[in-house]
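Recall the central idea of this unit: under ordinary conditions, the amino acid sequence of a chain determines the structure it adopts. In this exercise we apply that idea directly, starting from the sequence alone.
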Amino acid sequence: MSAKPSPRSARSVSARGLVLALLAALAATACSTAPPEALARALEAYPPSKPFTDSVFVELPLAMLHCRVSEPEGEPIGRILLVHGLAGSTYSWRLQYESLSAAGYRVVAVDVPPFGFSARSDGYPADAAGRARLLWDLLDALGPPGGTWILAGHSLGGRYVAEMALGRPDRAEALVLAAAAVGIPGESPLLPRGVPWYFRVPGVRALARAWVRSRLSDPRRFAAMQAQAYGREPGPDEFLGYWAPLSPPDAPDALVAWAWRGAFGTSPDPRELALPTLLVWGTRDAWVPFANGEALAALVPGARLEAIEGGGHCVVETAGAAVDAVLLPWLAALDQERSRGSSTVNRVPDPSSDEKATRPPR
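Accordingly, the structure predicted from this sequence is:
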């Protein structure tokens, strides 16, 4: 580990000046398919050497990871790992990072390669099992030895933490799966298994790199993809929170190489999960449908499903207050939930949504 976590009282992003410069440059991108010169110059200084005041860079034998670590002032009431999904970073769980830290938990939010501020390449397998090993190695490095963790994952990160729980059940205390890309046995997979066959066609990797580069270099296209995940248009800060870490020129090659290494692979079997599990899902998730959350609730023993009405795929961000309203009480009553082993659906209104979905009772 190359840095010591800062106290949780200091939360401001040290790169705020750079963010303001990026915002100013962004105003000139409306008719451009590539970053304008001012934005390109701003990105030369990106990422900053220390993205957050509580940033920690951890050197593992096969990877260099960036994470945020919140240390409570006294003995933590629990330890929680927050893992983002595809194209996300520590930014994705920022709201819960703050609320969980304030509640007295020790919180670790990590950038999983090739995303965020971690090194683009690593020596771990790219599938869920390899990412699970990487993340347990991170927690072992952070300590304490043998400590148990609550594992929270969004989207693809949900697949990773489910694999973590299956691989080391003695270290996993509970699971929080938010719009998790965990497959349903017997149904079509949510993501390709292994390396898609078309990646083996000559020239396809070069075309894939060009396609990814076109999306990452065009703010309008990137914002359109983000709007689909959010269920609404992203604000300027939200746009930059995702786009800026993916803007350096090495990102397209790293993303394609990650996919080529079999980034998705086989999904863990949810029926094998045997620990308290909270499922949080937006009812208007366009990427991992709410029906998947209902199916997981029926398959995971003792799971509890919380539906955020009107929420999209990135519900932990766009409905952060609604998510906290169910997450914090569930954590506080974890022992009761474990003994009760319920599998119910509680519908929680999304205060950030102007239009509420009307759904028949289930």
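DSSP finds 13 helices and nine strands in the chain.
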